[in-house]
Design a protein that fits this description.
Distance between the termini: 6 Å
Strand order of the largest sheet: 2-5-10-13-16-19-21-22
CATH topology: UDP N-Acetylglucosamine Acyltransferase, domain 1
Strand content: 25-35%
Number of domains: 1
Radius of gyration: 20 Å
Order of helices and strands: HEEEEEEEEEEEEEEEEEEEEEEHH
Number of strands: 22
Helix content: 10-25%
CATH architecture: 3 Solenoid
Length: about 240
């Protein structure tokens, strides 16, 4: 489709259904989660294992064919943990899998298809066991991971840094820089004084944000009608 033909009331019904689904089926999968959870296509989001927690205003966006997976693994007495800060964005196709600990700082953004793991999952020679092939991953505050970035075990990424699209991070990346490549290396340094505008600024006035988003929905659907939308579903044309 070239445009969204749904009338306003249909959009509001779907928004309500998504929020209900998230509360009913996703929230119980977290050990703890703050207010402001926002999800897209929640039936394409998978939470697996205990020890997953998140702060306020977590945005989890999945889509058909692009699952988001947050998973922890228990090995003997050790159980993986995923700890997510406030105002974090996770985009479609992202997988975060923990055998020990993955910690993600506040205001971090992950583009589509990112992969973060704190384990190789199989030993170099013993392919039936993990052995000691696991080390914690720590991602700082206000980090931006580009499309299909991979973050490997034992890595720390410093505050404000950007990881380029398709990069494979095998070693620590310091704060305030841009890293790219396979293996990722620093290609540019950022001014630590900024000024950085972080995602948290979007949520300073949550009631106003909710009103603004509702007004935007009304505006985008201003010319849509129920029968026009129904026709576009059953018999779409190039104008749809």
């Amino acid at each position: 489709m070239r445009r969204d033909n749904r009338p306003y009331f249909v959009r509001r019904i779907l928004i309500g259904w998504v929020r209900f689904y998230a509360r009913r089926f996703l929230v119980p999968g977290f050990d703890a989660i703050g207010p402001g959870l926002d999800v897209t296509s929640p039936w394409n989001i998978e939470l697996w294992g205990a020890g997953i927690s998140a702060g306020s205003n977590l945005h989890l966006h999945a889509s058909n064919g692009n699952f988001v997976r947050l998973a922890t693994w228990r090995t003997g007495d050790r159980e993986g943990r995923i700890i997510i800060g406030d105002h974090v964005l996770i985009s479609p196709g992202t997988h975060i899998v923990a055998s020990e600990e993955i910690r993600i700082g506040s205001n971090t953004m992950m583009a589509s298809g990112c992969y973060i793991s704190d384990s190789d999952w199989h030993d170099t020679y013993d392919r039936t066991a993990e052995r000691d092939k696991h080390r914690p991953v720590h991602i700082g505050d206000n980090v931006w991971l580009g499309v299909r970035a991979i973050v490997c075990k034992g890595v720390t990424i410093g505050d404000n840094s950007i990881i380029g699209a398709g990069a494979v991070v095998t070693r620590d990346i310091p704060a305030n820089c841009i890293a790219a490549g396979n293996p990722a290396r620093v290609v540019r340094e950022l001014d630590p004084a900024g000024p950085f505008r972080k995602r948290g600024s979007l949520f300073a006035e949550p009631e106003k944000l909710e009103r603004d988003m509702d007004n935007l929905t009304r505006y985008l659907a201003r010319d849509n009608t129920f029968f026009g939308w129904l026709r576009s579903v059953l018999a779409p044309t190039r104008s749809d």
